[in-house]
């Protein structure tokens, strides 16, 4: 169940960050509200994740997956440019997530 909570935390964080971009510095109220609610949901489900997965690993997985997903959303939805260095860096983050999940005993729930 911890990974379901983590997935919800990541998805809500990506939605919140996308809305943060659309809020134009909290000057547009609708995406500003989505941002606040999204981050509250993300932190709540991250806290639930930490009941089963150690804090450092939970945060690393949450932030790493969030970085990759929000970069992808920025690239596709907001037409933001990702150069080769950014793509390589994101690939390293994904490799790190896979290494933690496949080889680390710290994630056993």
TrEMBL record:
Keyword Nucleus among record annotations: no
InterPro entries given in the database record: EmrE-like, Small_drug/metabolite_transptr, Small_multidrug_res
Gene Ontology CC entries for this record: plasma membrane
MF-aspect GO terms: amino-acid betaine transmembrane transporter activity; antiporter activity; choline transmembrane transporter activity
Keyword hit for Transferase: no
UniProtKB keywords: Cell membrane, Membrane, Transmembrane, Transmembrane helix, Transport
Location in the cell: Cell membrane
UniProt similarity note: Belongs to the drug/metabolite transporter (DMT) superfamily. Small multidrug resistance (SMR) (TC 2.A.7.1) family.
Protein name: Multidrug efflux SMR transporter
Organism per entry: Acinetobacter terrae
Phylogenetic placement of the source organism: Bacteria, Pseudomonadati, Pseudomonadota, Gammaproteobacteria, Moraxellales
């Amino acid at each position: 169940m911890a990974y379901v909570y983590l997935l919800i935390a990541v998805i809500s964080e990506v939605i919140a960050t996308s809305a943060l971009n659309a809020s134009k510095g909290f000057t547009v109220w609708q995406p500003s509200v989505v941002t606040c609610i999204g981050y509250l949901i993300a932190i709540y489900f991250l806290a639930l994740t930490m009941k089963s997965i150690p804090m450092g690993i939970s945060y690393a997985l949450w932030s790493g997956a969030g970085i990759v997903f929000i970069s992808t959303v920025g690239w596709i939805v907001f037409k933001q440019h990702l150069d080769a260095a950014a793509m390589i860096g994101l690939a390293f983050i994904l490799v790190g997530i896979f290494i933690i999940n496949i080889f680390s005993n710290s994630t056993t729930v």
